[in-house]
Structures are given as C-alpha cells and as structure tokens.
UniProtKB/TrEMBL annotation:
Protein name (Swiss-Prot/TrEMBL): Pimeloyl-ACP methyl ester carboxylesterase
GO terms for MF: catalytic activity
AB hydrolase-1 domain residues: 31-267
InterPro entries: AB_hydrolase_1 (IPR000073), AB_hydrolase_fold (IPR029058), Carboxylesterase_BioH (IPR050228), Epox_hydrolase-like (IPR000639)
Annotated organism of origin: Streptomyces candidus
A Pfam family hit: Abhydrolase_1
Length: 280
C-alpha cells in the first residue's frame, strides 16, 4: 500500500469474475480483519479505518469487488451479488490467513459476506455489518429506476453521466463529502469503461440474492455487530434494528450524525466501535 494521499491497491488475484485488486496493511502475524465495501463505492471508503486498525495491531485486508474501483471492468462481466459472494470465498482461500478473520462489511459488502458465509462455508472469527443490504425490499427509487432502464442511462453524454454519479454519491453522506473525497469516489465510474460499469452493476442487482439468505440469519453462530448511521436515507435506521433482532446475540450501535457512508461521516465513532468489538 502506498503511503501517499491516494489509495492504490498493489496486488491482484484472478477471480472467477475478473481480476481483483487487493492489498494488506499491518503486521502479517497480527489477527486478520477483512474490510468489504458496497455500491457504488470501493475500498477507498475504508482507508482511514484500515490504517487505524493496522496501527492498532491488526492485519487488514482490503479489496475492490470485480467491476468496482481498481478491479477489472468489462462488458459482459458478472458483477452480481451472487458472483461477489463466490469471489470473496475464493479470495479467503487464496489469502489463507492462519486463523479465521474478522469481517467488516458495508452495504453490498454485507450481502457478499453473508452469502459467502451462509452459502459457501467461509469461516469468520466475528462479523461486523455496517448499514448492510440485507432485508427486502431494498434499493432507492433512483437505484430501481436505473436498474429498469440501464441501457438508456448508458447512452447519457459523459458530462451528464458524471454529474449524475457525483450527485448520487453525495446523497450517501449526511454531513456532505469533501470535494476531493467526492471526486475519488466518482473517478472509477467516469470514462467509457467506468460509465458502462456503473450501470452494469445496478442492472445486475436483484433482490433474489438477499431473498436466498434472509431466512437464514438466525443460523449465524458467531459474534455479530450491526452499526448504522442514524441519518441513513438510503436504508433507514429501523432496518438495522430489524436485522439485529434476527441474529442471535447480535449487538446494535446507532451512530449519530452519520448517513449511509458512515466511514466518511463518522470515521472516529465507527472505528472506535469496531476496535471495541474486535477486542471483546
């Protein structure tokens, strides 16, 4: 991992859904933690949390899902939540940490982690879910509109597409994103490859990927923490409480002043909750 202000993943893995870019921070002998991002984001949203966890005695794995961030983007690529769960199980087998890792997952990353565990047998030491996509129905009205007409949105002029992406990403924050952060989050979706990838991942989003596992959350037999931004307008706070109630022994921490992008709105509060959970 570079030490500059930019977030650059230096390693690659040839997954079944395309080349995945990933990296590792911290002491290789320290307890492993894996961070999963959601949509339309990348591992960049975890940069502050990842660096803090690494500095506090954890070996931290970060990766961009196929079709996202710095990972491969191509026409015809399967970037569905079904594919992402399979890829995560493949990555864990490739990394082969000495002990099962703690997993921290946001948004679609939550679905990915849950599917890998419940359907593919991926083993975790503990699981933290941050505003995850887990309970039906899900998807903002904009998200559903684009999913139904992706082929039309793909033809937008680049400047209109760029404005749409920036505006959409901005609504994930309750406090407002720093302009430089907003640009970093939008950058992977700009240009011909990025524009196609942005609408591809929305078009392939399907509630059946969560329907398949929603009835199995009661089977989770490991420590689980659910964190939720109190001002999340993408997935309301009550969904977090409902999800927590379905998981035996799960703890719930609402985070004041944070929207869906808790990592950007309240990084210190989220990191503190994660450090306490990982140490418990």
């Amino acid at each position: 991992m570079t030490s500059t202000g930019h977030w650059h993943l230096t390693r690659t893995f040839p997954s079944s859904a395309g080349e995945v870019r990933w990296d590792r921070l911290g002491d290789s002998g320290a307890p492993p933690v894996v961070l999963l991002h959601g949509t339309p984001f990348s591992s960049y949203v975890w940069r502050a949390v990842a660096r803090t966890l690494a500095a506090r005695g954890h070996q931290v794995y970060v990766w961009d899902m196929p079709g996202y961030g710095q990972s491969e983007k191509r026409e015809g690529q399967d970037v569905s939540l079904g594919a992402q769960g399979t890829v995560f199980a493949e990555l864990l087998a490739h990394w082969a940490p000495r002990t099962p890792p703690a997993v921290v997952a946001h948004d679609f990353g939550g679905t990915t982690a849950l599917r890998a565990h419940l359907l593919h047998g991926a083993r975790y030491h503990r699981l933290a879910l941050v505003d995850p996509v887990a309970l039906a129905p899900w998807g903002t009205s904009f998200f559903r509109l684009v999913g139904q007409h992706a082929e039309v949105f793909e033809q937008l002029p680049p400047h209109l597409h760029a404005a749409l992406v920036r505006e959409y990403i901005g609504t994930a924050s309750a406090r407002g994103l720093h302009p430089a952060v907003a640009e970093e989050l939008a950058a992977p979706w700009l240009g011909p490859a990025g524009q196609g990838a942005f609408y591809r991942q929305i078009a392939q989003s399907d509630q059946r990927w969560t329907d398949e596992i929603e009835g199995r959350y009661g089977e989770l037999d490991l420590p689980v923490l659910v964190c939720w931004g109190e001002d999340d307008t993408w997935i309301p706070l009550e969904r977090g409480r409902a999800l927590t109630a379905r998981i035996p022994g799960a703890a719930f921490i609402p985070i004041p002043g944070a929207g869906h992008l808790v990592q950007e709105d309240a990084p210190a509060e989220l990191t503190g909750a994660l450090l306490e959970f990982l140490a418990s």
